[in-house]
Automatic annotation (TrEMBL):
InterPro entries: P-loop_NTPase (IPR027417). This is ATPase. It comes from Candidatus Thiodubiliella endoseptemdiera.
Length: 279
C-alpha cells in the first residue's frame, strides 16, 4: 500500500507488514501498537509452525520416540499422544525441527536432511505470507480495527515478487533497519545463543564451502553445529541487508531501529511512520 502521511494518519483500518531481522524491534513495535488499540497480530512464524510444518514437526518427534521400544509401543497403541503446543511466544518446535547442520553427535543434522527441512520451511513461509489477505478479512470479521503482520526475518529470502506484491497490495510494508549498535547486539546474541536459521540455498552452499576450507574439514558432518551458526550469522546479516533494502525501495518504507526504540506509545510509532511517508 502507498499512503501519504495524512492518509495513513486518518486511515481507520491500518495494516502493516514488519520486515527485518529477528531481534531488530518488530515485536517491540507490535506491542506498542497493541497496547492502545485493537490490533490483530498475525505471526508468520506461528502460522508456519501451527499449520504448514505441524505434520512434519510431529512426524519428526514421533520418529525420535520410536527409537525407544517401550515408548514406540505406547505411541503405536495410542497410549500416549504427541501435540505441537506452539504459541506466539514459544516457537521452539519450529526451531527444533529446522535444526542446525553438522555433526549428529553434537546435535547436528546431515546435510541432505538439513536441506530438506530448509526447503519445507521455505514453502511454509511462502504460503504463510500468501495467507495474509485472508487473515485480514478474518480480522475484520472479528471486529479488529487494525492488522499487523509480524513476518519472519527470512521473508527477504523468498525472492518471490508474487509474495511481496500481495503484501504490498494489502499492507504497508515497513522495514526496520538495524543501526550499528543493534547489529552488534544481534551478532552477540547469535554468538551466545546460536539458533537454527533459514538460509538461501545458494548462500548456504557458498558459505559451507568457505567454512569447510577455512577449518580444513572435508564433510559437513564434521562441522560443530553451534560454531557454524556463530560463524555464519554476521555473513547472513550482510547478505540480507541489501535484500531488505530492495524490498523496501520497491514495495514499502524504511524506519531506523534507533528511532523506533525511542517511541513510547502507538502515537509516537504512527508519527515515526508518518515522517517516513513524507520523505
Amino acid at each position: 500500500m502507498r499512503f501519504s502521511a495524512e492518509e495513513f494518519s486518518q486511515s481507520k483500518h491500518k495494516r502493516l507488514t514488519l520486515l527485518g531481522m529477528s531481534g531488530v524491534g518488530k515485536t517491540h513495535l507490535s506491542k506498542l501498537l497493541s497496547a492502545d488499540e485493537k490490533w490483530y497480530h498475525y505471526s508468520g512464524d506461528y502460522r508456519i509452525g501451527a499449520e504448514y510444518l505441524n505434520d512434519a514437526i510431529l512426524s519428526n518427534i514421533k520418529h525420535k520416540i520410536r527409537q525407544d521400544e517401550d515408548l514406540a509401543e505406547l505411541l503405536n497403541n495410542d497410549s500416549i499422544r504427541v501435540k505441537n503446543h506452539i504459541t506466539f511466544d514459544n516457537l521452539s518446535s519450529v526451531s527444533s525441527f529446522l535444526g542446525k547442520v553438522g555433526n549428529p553427535e553434537q546435535g547436528g543434522l546431515p546435510i541432505d536432511e538439513f536441506i530438506r527441512r530448509q526447503a519445507l520451511f521455505y514453502q511454509a513461509e511462502t504460503l504463510s505470507m500468501l495467507d495474509v489477505p485472508a487473515f485480514i478479512e478474518r480480522a475484520k470479521a472479528k471486529g479488529f480495527n487494525h492488522f499487523i503482520n509480524d513476518a519472519g526475518g527470512s521473508l527477504c529470502e523468498l525472492d518471490d515478487d508474487k509474495v511481496y506484491q500481495s503484501l504490498a497490495e494489502n499492507t504497508l510494508i515497513v522495514y526496520i533497519r538495524a543501526n550499528e549498535n543493534n547489529e552488534f547486539a544481534l551478532i552477540e546474541r547469535a554468538k551466545n545463543k546460536p539458533k537454527p536459521l533459514y538460509y538461501n540455498q545458494e548462500f548456504l552452499k557458498k558459505q559451507l564451502d568457505i567454512y569447510l576450507q577455512e577449518n580444513q574439514l572435508i564433510y559437513a558432518a564434521q562441522i560443530n553445529p553451534d560454531e557454524f551458526v556463530r560463524w555464519i550469522f554476521p555473513r547472513l546479516l550482510e547478505h540480507r541487508k541489501p535484500k531488505y533494502e530492495a524490498i523496501a525501495q520497491q514495495y514499502g518504507y524504511t524506519i531506523n531501529s534507533e528511532d523506533l526504540y525511542q517511541c513510547q506509545n502507538a502515537n509516537e510509532v504512527f508519527e515515526l511512520i508518518g515522517a517516513t511517508l513524507c520523505r
